[in-house]
Amino acid sequence: MIVAFSVTPLGVGEDVGEYVADAVRVVRESGLPNRTDAMFTSIEGESWDEVMDVVKRAVATVQERAPRVSLVLKADIRPGVTDALTSKVETVERHLAQ
């Protein structure tokens, strides 16, 4: 499954990059395949529990320093599929090249 999520600290001012970096650090240290872009971090794992544990820890890390946290999450739950984080993008790129 792939989960794309965005965690945003609230009540800490406009510059939230440091807080977001703390959350992304948790994701990267998890060892699961992941990507971060300007809006979301995507993480891929074998099970709901495996991926959501990382999301929960990322949110908790931000929550340690922010009085309020917003979480946006989108999930693609497709058992038996692996490497979708890469293959989905490759499929779109292949169609764009035509």
Can I get a quick summary?
By secondary structure, the protein is an alpha+beta fold. The protein has helices at residues 17-29, 48-63, 84-96, and strands at 2-10, 34-36, 41-44, 68-76.
Q: Helix and strand string, N-terminal first? A: EHEEHEH
Which strand order does the major sheet show? 2-3-1-4
CATH class: Alpha Beta
Measured by DSSP, the beta-strand proportion falls in 25-35%
The CATH topology label is Alpha-Beta Plaits
* Low-confidence residue ranges: none
Shape: globular
> What can be said about the biggest beta sheet?
4 strands, antiparallel
Total beta-strand segments: 4
State the secondary-structure class.
Answer: alpha+beta
- How much is the average pLDDT? 95
Return the CATH architecture.
2-Layer Sandwich
Rg, please?
A: 15 Å
Query: How much helicity do the residues have?
Result: 40-55%
Work out the helix count. Answer: 3
Distance between the termini: 28 Å
Overall tally of structural domains? 1
Tell me about this structure.
This protein is an alpha+beta fold and 98 residues long. It is built from three helices and four strands, in the order E-H-E-E-H-E-H. The protein has helices at 17-29, 48-63, 84-96; strands at residues 2-10, 34-36, 41-44, 68-76. Helix 1 (17-29) runs antiparallel to helix 2 (48-63). The chain is globular. The mean pLDDT is 95.
What's the SSE blueprint?
Blueprint: E1 2-10, H1 17-29, E2 34-36, E3 41-44, H2 48-63, E4 68-76, H3 84-96
Antiparallel strand pairs: 1-3, 1-4, 2-3
Helix pairs in contact: 1-2
